[in-house]
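Entry type: protein chain
Record version: 2
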Amino acid sequence: MYYNEDCIKGAKEYLKDNSIDLIICDPPYGINGDKLDRHYRRDESNVLYGYRDVPENEYPEFSLGWIKEAERVLRPGGSMYIVSGYTNLRHILNALSKTKLKERNHIIWKYSFGVYTSKKYVSSHYHILYYIKNGGHVTFNKNAFYGDSEKTEYGGNLNYLDREDVWVINREYKPGRIKNKNELPVSLLKKMILYSSNKNDMVCDFFLGGFSTAKTAINLGRKACGFEINRIAFDYQIQQIAKILL
């Protein structure tokens, strides 16, 4: 269920209508993301080569293409989370407005160690767009992490706090380990998967990258599928997935 393909072409060929319970996507930057290491002087000696960004002028058409496919394959009542920076957020929102998918929440993911700037505010958040497809039962496990009566040490309601639409979750740093250009932290993925799917549900990632979504889904008792266009990353991560499934 993993394909070394462009996600738009691959979805058309391999994924049936209404076949996916949950989609989680972290699409390419569209801001020369394949060259950001040079701009920020990052050491990427352990990053898998071959990350492919989308040219900025192609981003609107690209966004509409994959989001239309996501709408088609999502089951009625299914959920989708899209993680995006602010630069091309308008193109993703414009594409979503051309579907029948419905917004449930616009979540802010706050992380530590943003991009340092001296002449403007430090950017230290991403947007997470949570949408559903009408027409069926929507999975939302309200007590995925906390019971209704569980309290913080100061008496606050843990369930309420965990379901606020600002998520403070740190990025993961993996010094000395092979990794993809950009990977979502497991704790972030776990939150989306546990709230919006059940065991044996099918979770799809149109941009597998480091296969973090697939690995987390499998470890939580879900099934997973998806697409990755980078052959080097795909071949390496398929071996890692195989170890989980043994």
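Comment: The first helix runs from residue 7 to 14.
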